[in-house]
Design brief:
Blueprint: E1 6-11, H1 17-26, E2 33-35, E3 38-43, H2 45-54, E4 60-69, H3 73-82, E5 94-102, H4 109-128, E6 133-134, E7 141-148, E8 151-157, H5 179-189, E9 197-199, H6 206-215, H7 237-249, E10 259-263, H8 266-278, E11 285-289, E12 304-308, H9 321-335, E13 340-346, E14 360-366, E15 369-377
Parallel strand pairs: 5-6, 5-7, 9-10, 9-12, 10-11, 12-13
Antiparallel strand pairs: 1-3, 1-4, 2-3, 4-8, 7-8, 13-15, 14-15
């Protein structure tokens, strides 16, 4: 399987495609192509291993196993049954299938899932006399069926779990920012990995921790308890252990790295410190109790500010968001001349209260909420 060229699709949150594409090109994964919802690339199974180990903004890495015209359930069943599923799953393993359909004759996702399961189970029964378990929790193999205009793409999930579940987080906090989206915020900000970076609304410290992992060259996949491809028959354990060992050796200790996070909630700061320690960057991230309404960092520091501002479930009782955004914007203009900012905000009029001049706007989806990431330099 290692020499075979496969087509992969790294999925991501809406709006994150540009930075994910940059990551994939930096990993030199061949023939990459950006699409809505993710990025295609090609390669052998070693490309999937590398992607799962190193990508910071991807949610999953899917590998295409079949693509065909599909206008009826008979075709769906027959073409699915032709796939050599025994290459990806043992006969006594656990299987989960999910499906999506758009503008197709087969429009009910639950029905599509059932027919794909039937075809896979029947193939195993005929070839081995046994059948895999259908197990949504803890499945060894995830299969994705995607129908669009009567064309079906079948893919296997090389990740096995959503990649935002890094494994370092000990405390969730209130409405935490996904690790993958936090990494995207840092990448969109243009941070160079050396300048000071501050998060005045840090919560569980996801943004400064992800920034520290980037600066230290720590592969996010090293925290994982295991990926989907590790369950496949024929998985090359020696090659995988060698790749993880090489990733460990690439870790560096940035000199004079200054990463700061503050939050008005003392309990959140305590939890954030435990998160940073769990990620192995507790000595790189300074976390303190402070109120962002009194934000007054060092002048002339030319730092970066990257933050997920309060909205939705992150609003404390008694907090007037309009006043908060306005006072924070005043603090930026007063104390942060020359700073770069990347601020994740809710879609709506609140962003105007910040008073940023001609910010670059990126539309992102955070926890099902439409948001804007505002990137700007604070001019005099």
């Amino acid at each position: 399987m290692s020499s075979q060229k496969n087509i992969f699709f790294a999925t991501c949150a809406p709006g994150v495609e540009p930075v994910l594409h940059e990551e994939i090109r930096a990993l030199r994964l061949p023939r990459s192509e950006r699409q809505v919802g993710g990025v295609y690339f090609e390669g052998g199974i070693e490309a999937a291993r590398r992607a799962n180990l190193w990508l910071r903004t991807a949610i999953r890495v899917l590998m295409r196993v079949q693509r065909f015209a599909c206008g009826d359930e008979g075709t769906l069943y027959a073409e699915t049954k032709r796939v050599p599923w025994e290459s990806f799953l043992r006969a006594d393993g656990g299987l989960v299938v999910d499906a999506q359909s758009r503008d197709s004759s087969l429009s009910h996702s639950r029905f599509i899932e059932q027919r794909v399961k039937d075809a896979i189970v029947d193939r195993f029964r005929e070839k081995t006399g046994r059948r895999p378990n259908v197990d949504r929790e803890g499945a060894d193999l995830g299969v994705h069926a995607h129908l669009f205009r009567d064309r079906c793409t079948l893919s296997v999930d090389t990740s096995g779990h959503a990649l935002h579940r890094r494994g370092w987080r000990k405390h969730q906090g209130r409405a935490p920012l996904a690790e993958t989206l936090a990494a995207a915020v840092v990448k969109f900000s243009g941070w160079d990995g050396r300048a000071p970076l501050l998060d005045p609304f840090c919560g569980s410290a996801t943004i400064p921790i992800e920034a520290a992992l980037m600066a230290a060259g720590i592969a996010p996949g090293l925290f994982s308890q295991g990926f989907g491809f590790e369950n496949w028959p024929g998985h090359d354990t020696k090659a995988w252990e060698r790749e993880k060992s090489e990733a460990h050796q690439k870790r560096r200790s940035p000199k004079r790295l200054r990463l700061y996070g503050t939050d008005r909630d003392k309990q959140r700061i305590g939890e954030a410190r435990e998160n940073a320690a769990s990620a192995g960057v507790g000595d790189q991230v300074e976390l303190e109790v402070a109120d962002a309404r009194e934000f007054a960092p060092r002048r002339g520091w030319n730092a970066w500010i990257a933050s997920n501002l309060p909205y939705g479930e992150r609003i404390d009782r008694g907090i007037d968001l309009e006043v908060l955004y306005e006072r924070f914007g005043d603090a930026l203009r007063t104390h942060c001349e020359g700073y770069h900012v990347a601020l994740l905000c809710p879609l709506g009029p609140l962003t105007k209260r910040l008073g940023l001049r001609r910010p670059e706007r990126h539309t992102l989806l955070n926890g099902g909420l439409d948001c804007r990431l505002l990137c700007a330099k604070i001019d005099p």
